[in-house]
Amino acid sequence: MNIKKVGLAILLGLLLTPALWAQVERIDLQVQGMT
Amino acid sequence: MQKRLQRLDGVAKVEVELLTQKVVLHPKPDGGIDLSSLLKATHAGGVTPVEMIVTAGGRVVKDAQGAVRFRIAAKQEFEVVSNDASRSLEGLAGSDEQVTLRGRMFQMPPSQKFPKEIGTLRFEILEVLKKP
User: How far apart are CA A34 and CA B102, in angstroms?
Assistant: First the structure.
């Protein structure tokens, strides 16, 4: 097992997790003129 | 207009309520929606956006001047309008704590004319839905 590769994978997972969690969940638009 | 919005990058679903003149957009889980483009696309579709409320998860950060900002993703970070809600979150700035906020990001100007340029969008916190 390549320890460096495992460590890099864990590091990337930790770095990416907030980005995956953080996101726009919903957008509500109040508009005029929709028919 | 609904089909135009549905084609925008990052949009999973668009719900339209004619009676209340409301449009609800649900983003794709892995997509980022360009909010300025959304407003422009809505207006280009013949419908005038009056107000845009965004519900999002992210982190509270501070810029070099100490102003509070809301970071939703690497490329989506917004200045936060100062109010009681934003002041209550200042302590989280710089931490990895995640919050879910509901905020106003666009409102029709007093002139009641859709602006030619959207400008920089700011996040006015209306409600803190989730915080550590």
Answer: 24
